[in-house]
Amino acid sequence: MKVLVPIKRVVDYNVKIRVKADQTGIDLANVKMSMNPFDEIAVEEAVRLKEKGAATEIVAISIGPQECQETIRTALAMGADRGILVKAAHDVEPLAVAKILAAIAKAESPQLVILGKQAIDDDSNQTGQMLAALLGWPQGTFASKVVLEGGKAEVTREVDGGLQTVKLNLPAIVTTDLRLNEPRYASLPNIMKAKKKPIDQKEPGDYGVDAAPRLKVLKVTEPPKRKAGVKVKTVQELVDKLKNEAGVI
Amino acid sequence: MSVLLVAEHDNKTLKEATAKAATAALKIGSPVDILVAGSGAKAVADAAAKIAGIGKVLLADDAQYANQLAEPMAALILELAGKYDAIVTSASASGKNYMPRVAATLDVPQISEIVSVDGPDTFTRPIYAGNAMMQVQAPGGAKKVITVRTTAFKAAEMTGSASVETIGAAKNPGISEFVKEELSKSERPELASAKIVISGGRGMQSGENFHLLDKIADRLKAAVGASRAAVDAGFVPNEYQVGQTGKVVAPELYIAVGISGAIQHLAGMKDSKVIVAINKDEEAPIFQVADYGLVADLFKAIPELDEELKKQGYG
Ligand SMILES: Cc1cc2nc3c(=O)[nH]c(=O)nc-3n(C[C@H](O)[C@H](O)[C@H](O)COP(=O)(O)OP(=O)(O)OC[C@H]3O[C@@H](n4cnc5c(N)ncnc54)[C@H](O)[C@@H]3O)c2cc1C
Ligand SMILES: Nc1ncnc2c1ncn2[C@@H]1O[C@H](COP(=O)(O)O)[C@@H](O)[C@H]1O
Predict the structure, then answer these.
(1) What pLDDT digit, counting tens, does each position of A124-172 carry?
(2) Is A217 at the interface with chain B, CB within 8 A?
(3) What is the pLDDT of residue A135?
(4) Which pLDDT belongs to residue A154?
(5) Which protein residue has the closest C-alpha to ligand 2 atom 10?
């Protein structure tokens, strides 16, 4: 069984981003980039499936600039077998990402595609669901547990009120939530080995996809700042302020 | 421009989120029709009909919609989509699940978690955990598919009396099935709609210690939330998580206890009206967004707070 894992290169989650003064976007100069944290969880899940003998091959796919190759190498060092880099100079919107992934899925015929639930840069939370729709496959989003059994995937999902479990026909789409697993660090020997694993270089056009943005970004601005507050010395003072100054209790 | 608003509910009651999403939908265009897809959900449809300003309510009552599975939900919405220029729902776990399926099938982008409607085709949404706001324009002539961050909109009045029309179910794609749900039962208000939220972080040290917060919550009729660290450590279940990748809340009062204030946590609560932070580290970033900060050991401060509230007649 083949597993595809789409991984996005994003600004590292520890970086405090800066909005560009001309309001055209985020300043990415000299900013640390990493694999989207949810995608690390996706790679880890695929590698565990392979270690259990449930998966035979893991293909890591990244769509974006040439530097995404580093992100793919990270996935290969964690245990993915090969990579596909689909080069695009600009940000590719979730719908176009999903179309490229759908074309790859049709060519590769995986039983499972595991994505992150959300990219922490655009916070879209769409791509997996869109891919499922384009392929006509079922989806298990926000997964905290995945069990493959009897040709189906049983996925436990983190929902607003607690947990929901669904059973999906294969092939299926899974998107990861934080509690699915804890991703491993690649060991030095595995990092060396990963350098020899193959990475295919493609372009959106190879899949017949027009990756041009459909949404027009008018401006990107800083959110309103909160006014600095005060320190209170005692619990009594706190209660007094909440009651008589803020009027919220 | 006609709008289809998909209701959020648990088959018994309509979530307040739908009345808030209705405010956004009415800003986008009209008429706004509301789709209630559920099982035994007549009462939900009747409640939705009271939302002021809407056109009509469409009720699809069928077992396949009982648990809001994405595949049948999307199939139903797509059957209705032809008549509408925009399709809208609240950015709940459930809306986030089925809506992108609808968008992709219609071959249009989805605009996720809008916080304002700036024009009929122009919207603002947070990116980078709310550290930037992006204003986008939807492509002209195409259907708009939108999820709404409901904390950013006031609930519509419940003074209307729209008609309820029953519609048939769509063909179930039959590729997924519901197995079970483990939902936590609580007498307290829901996180998403509570006026007061008290959240605990890693500083709570154990699940047991969350009882300290429960006591305050009971006195103030508050909901209890948590940071990711507290959820990951198993102190409380996943649905307590507030933040970029958990729930977004904007209550009148948010009390953060033993939470450092990582950007991912702030993303879920920094639009609260009043923020209180209780933390023993005076350098903790949470104090930068707190209106009232108390530098103290929570194991001393929280019992004191309980005492003081009791003295003042709360609960
Ligand atoms: C992809 C991704 C998504 C994430 N999503 C979220 C999210 O949605 N929500 C979220 O919350 N986090 C999220 N995080 C995690 C986030 O980065 C932080 O790790 C997390 O919020 C820290 O939780 P905390 O403040 O409880 O713990 P810590 O940062 O460890 O802080 C504990 C605080 O408790 C204080 N403390 C300790 N003991 C006491 C005491 N006795 N009395 C008073 N104070 C005390 C300490 O001074 C400290 O400030 C995400 C991270 C990633 C990478
Ligand atoms: N450019 C990309 N390249 C590879 N995978 C992506 C890309 N964009 C999104 N994804 C995948 O889709 C998931 C959800 O992203 P999003 O819908 O943008 O929040 C991510 O966690 C990735 O698994």
Answers:
(1) 999 999 999 999 999 999 999 999 999 999 999 999 999 999 999 999 9
(2) yes
(3) 98
(4) 98
(5) A8
Mean pLDDT within B175-195: 93
d(CA B211, CA A210): 54
pLDDT at A227: 85
**Within an 8 Å CB–CB cutoff, is residue A94 touching chain B?**
yes
Contact yes or no for B100 and A167 at CB 8 A: no
Contacts of B277 (CB under 8 A, 6+ apart): B255, B256, B259, B261, B284, B286, B287, B289, B290, B292, B293, B294
Residue B186: predicted pLDDT: 86
Task: Output the six-digit token pair for B120.
Answer: 């009929």
| A59 strand-pairing partners | A4, A82
| C-beta of residue A39 within 8 angstroms of C-beta of residue A7 | yes
A239 and B295 in contact by Cβ < 8 A? Answer: no
Half-sphere exposure of A126 (CA within 13 A, CB side): 30
**Rounded Cα distance, B137 and A205, in Å:** 25
A8 lines ligand 2 (CB under 6 A): yes
pLDDT, residue B185, reads 86
Q: Give the single-character DSSP code of B36.
A: E
Probe residue for ligand 2, chosen from A90, A115, A180 as the CB with the greatest number of ligand atoms within 8 Å? A115
Residue B209 Cβ inside 6 Å of ligand 1? The answer reads: no
- The response to whether residue A204 sits with its C-beta less than 6 Å from ligand 2 reads no
